[in-house]
Write a structure and sequence with these properties.
Blueprint lengths: L2 E5 L10 E8 L7 E7 L5 E7 L6 E3 L7 E6 L4 E6 L8 E8 L11 E2 L3 E3 L4
Antiparallel strand pairs: 1-2, 2-7, 3-4, 3-8, 4-5, 6-7, 8-9, 8-10
Length: 122
Amino acid sequence: QVQLVESGGGLVQAGGSLRLSCEVSGLMFNIYNLAWFRRAPGKEREFVAAIGRNVDTTLYADSVKGRSLCTRDNAKNTAFLQMNSLRPKDAAVYYCAAGQTFARVPASYHYWGQGTQVPFSS
């Protein structure tokens, strides 16, 4: 059974940072591309970042580029998303996903986690 479990969410403030983790089990982690998506209240799910199976290839949404880092540890079957200089628009439920195609579109990813909430402190 394939499982993706996100962690690291929680209340954040403007200018702050977060580090999300996605622990994967039940598949050959090092042959899958990993991606992060998010869904803000009342909005569509949107792509945030992705990292290829070869670790050196990453892709970022324009909205997070330059202040985010997507990494993976193939020895620990875990992917990470570090985001800095957080903005209120970053508040969302963050999902990690695994797929065979390295892309920005959700349909390219076959397996999904349940999500972790990142609300903003007003």
